[in-house]
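Consider the tokenized backbone below.
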């Protein structure tokens, strides 16, 4: 199998030059990621303006290599086109996949000139910094002008790139290749038909023992103890300390600074230790994906094949492993050692507390039943923005109304509503649907892993995560971006994307937890 990922030493000169340009793009991208990580963690505030210019320069250099005439000549010589994504020459599997990826990325980048890319980069850097200020101050009006500029640029981008039935499709395709808004809407509709009755049924069981979470109310869980527990979990997951870091940021994230340097962050809540611990497990799932890509693949293919697949890895670890009874059965002694405030609570109570279902304002803190409803909210707002049916100035109120419709609650502040996520400040329109797709992919993959590893639950209960990590690496991680999401799902599970395994998982788990 390892031969699959090797590129031929006697590849055509045009491919060698294209690969060299792609490697340079990869190195520049990793450099940009390092600057971005620093901006979100340790950068002094006064450095913002120059940091925005640094990022803009890197964005321009990457764009010049990807969209430039030299790349175009190489691809033309190799015969790469939408009709012939693998070109017309005999190439190794890995070289074919690089050629397809380069052709796709080049065609998109060639639609955008360097000045536009630079403008977008500056707007994103300023947007992120001012989102943080606005979020802390609960002041959407401060952030609105920066978001308006980003939306204007993203509409321009969608118009320039084109493709799909509507503008949103051009942006979505960057994150989930081959999927359009119409397909997303159909999948979400099918999920909603089953999610809403499940949430309602759970809501009627307000006296359920799954509200053991309330036993933890009023306690103060020190950050130091949460971090110690988080690091113990990272060690059990085999997240390599020599290839990453754990830090704190306003919004938890994972960033790839190099093939062997994938860093994660979290944020801690001293009133709810599950929030910080879940974020650590979630981000580690992302990091293991990036670190698990086969080292022989070209640098450009050394990331995930889509954000939905990427999210499947984080959601699988966070929820299907990290919220399981077996998981907490193993970590209960360490939990009570590092966070003595939990002493006296039984395993069943901790398991119930970890899986409390209750509509909440913050997406990253949402339970796995209501989580997808948060994503649907954002998807509908993004569609409205891109279609011109909704203006930035009206987003705050529109958010409140969507929250009322989907979750039955209305955020009292913008920091708990429209300002809670970093994505729009980065210009990442079309990103949010991939979170819910990740739930679907995760359920399919975990179901397949359970078939292939019959004693998987017992292994989790013993803290033996290496067999699952190795299975995921072999099946999901190693191909990196050399495959498309639809190809990967078919290859691993033998079927197309299906929402039903996820709904089966939720119904089975929460019917038992809430005695439905």
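A designed sequence for it:
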């Amino acid at each position: 199998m390892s031969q699959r990922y090797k590129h031929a030493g006697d590849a055509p000169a045009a491919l060698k030059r294209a690969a060299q340009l792609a490697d340079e793009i990869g190195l520049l991208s990793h450099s940009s990621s390092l600057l971005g990580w620093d901006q979100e963690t340790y950068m002094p505030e006064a450095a913002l303006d120059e940091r925005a210019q640094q990022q803009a320069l890197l964005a321009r250099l990457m764009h010049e290599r990807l969209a430039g005439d030299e790349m175009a000549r190489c691809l033309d010589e190799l015969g790469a086109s939408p009709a012939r994504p693998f070109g017309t020459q005999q190439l190794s599997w890995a070289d074919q996949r690089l050629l397809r990826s380069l052709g796709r990325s080049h065609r998109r980048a060639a639609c955008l000139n360097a000045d536009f890319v630079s403008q977008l980069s500056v707007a994103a850097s300023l947007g992120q910094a001012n989102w943080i200020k606005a979020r802390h101050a609960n002041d959407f009006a401060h952030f609105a002008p920066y978001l308006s500029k980003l939306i204007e640029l993203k509409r321009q981008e969608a118009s320039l790139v084109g493709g799909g039935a509507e503008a949103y499709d051009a942006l979505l395709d960057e994150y989930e290749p081959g999927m359009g808004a119409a397909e997303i809407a159909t999948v979400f509709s099918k999920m909603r038909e089953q999610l809403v009755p499940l949430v309602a049924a759970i809501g009627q069981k307000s006296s359920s023992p799954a509200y053991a979470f309330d036993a933890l109310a009023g306690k103060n869980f020190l950050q130091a103890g949460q971090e110690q527990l988080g690091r113990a979990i990272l060690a059990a997951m085999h997240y390599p300390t020599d290839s990453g870091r754990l830090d704190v940021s306003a919004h938890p994230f994972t960033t790839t600074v190099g093939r062997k340097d994938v860093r994660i962050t979290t944020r801690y809540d001293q009133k709810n230790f599950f929030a910080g611990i879940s974020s650590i497990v979630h981000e580690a799932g992302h990091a293991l994906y990036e670190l698990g890509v086969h080292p022989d693949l070209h640098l450009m293919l050394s990331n995930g094949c889509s954000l939905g697949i990427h999210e499947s890895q984080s959601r699988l670890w966070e929820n299907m492993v990290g919220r399981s009874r077996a998981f907490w059965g193993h970590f209960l002694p360490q939990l009570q050692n590092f966070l003595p405030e939990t002493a006296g609570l039984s395993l069943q109570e901790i398991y119930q507390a970890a899986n409390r279902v209750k509509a909440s304002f913050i997406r990253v803190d949402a339970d796995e039943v209501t989580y997808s409803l948060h994503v649907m909210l954002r998807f509908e707002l993004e569609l409205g923005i891109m279609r011109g049916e909704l203006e930035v100035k009206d987003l705050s109120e529109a958010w409140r109304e969507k929250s009322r419709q989907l979750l039955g609650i209305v955020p009292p502040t913008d920091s708990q509503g429209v300002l809670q996520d970093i994505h729009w400040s980065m210009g990442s329109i079309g990103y949010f649907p991939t979170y819910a797709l990740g739930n679907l992919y995760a359920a399919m993959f975990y179901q397949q892993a359970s078939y292939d590893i019959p004693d998987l639950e017992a292994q989790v209960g013993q803290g033996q995560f290496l067999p699952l990590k190795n299975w995921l690496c072999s099946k999901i991680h190693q191909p990196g971006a050399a495959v498309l999401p639809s190809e990967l799902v078919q290859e691993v599970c033998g079927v197309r994307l299906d929402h039903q395994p996820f709904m089966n998982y939720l119904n089975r788990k929460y019917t038992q937890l809430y005695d439905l």
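Residues 13-41 form the longest helix (29 residues).
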